[in-house]
Amino acid sequence: MRKSTYVLPVIVVLAVIGLSSIFVVDEREKALVMQFGQIKSVKEEPGLAFKIPLIQEVVKYDDRILSLDTETIEVTPSDDRRLVVDAFARYRISDVVRFRQAVGVGGLRTAEDRLSGILNAQIREVLGADQVTSDVILSTDRRGLTNRIRDQARQQALSLGLDVVDVRLKQTNLPSQNLDATFARMRAEREREAADEIARGNEAAQRVRALADRTVVETQSEANRDGDIIRGEADAERNGIFAEAYGADPEFFAFYRSLQAYETSLGSGNSSMVMTPKGEFFEYFKSQGEIDLPAASAAPADGADASPTGSGNAETNAEGPGATGPGTTGSGATGASGTATE
Length: 342
Fold this sequence. Notes:
- By secondary structure, this protein is of the alpha+beta class.
- 46% of the residues lie in helices and 17% in strands.
């Protein structure tokens, strides 16, 4: 009875001591075995490990890649245009022993504060260097700038046992007080570019219109020239036909031309002509004899000045081709009605 009373507590104590001497290292972690604040061993491989209970303790650190967002800072590039920069970094603990010695019991919080100071200093140094303008920072070329920031920050972070994997500029903006002036300058530049484009377009349009006008003038000139040539050839052919007809029968040709003159002058409407019937125009109306006009008034008294005036209508059948006979109007004969003053 007495033996069991003492044995059971001893077994429990031994079990507790045995369990407290065993610890597990996860594959995502690294562990330090500490004894009175001194580093006794480093456990980087995952699995079971042992320590002296009650004397030694285990401190574990994350072995994964961690993220750090820096504070928003203002930088001044070489063109004196201030920019508000917000960056972030990816890092991991590469040397747990140096990390422990550098940050002590502060852990990741102290390490991130110090790493944030390193990154801000490198951002100001790189972005404020000579020949680094705000246009370069805002363009796609800033990838080279972030690589420079990463490389320089990595050298300084090694003293903390950290490895800076990557640095990126998350946000790059202008200060609020400079936005209006920047937008105004951008609008002015865009308006200038638009004016240049409009001027070039107007110039091209003017060239096209001038070319079109010249083409129209050339085409019209060629058409007029061809028309004049065709009209000249037609007139020559017509004159040749007239000359041939005149040579074949001059009398008939003169008669035919007179008929055309009658038709053109009298027309189809009411026409009044004041002319002597004995003129050459009515030559073919006289083929049956002279035209006798009725007396318009009584004979004047002896010794008085007289200006006899006669008016009447004469209708004579002209014999010609197609005439059907005296007193009949047919093809080739033309009737004339007029008022003559003699």
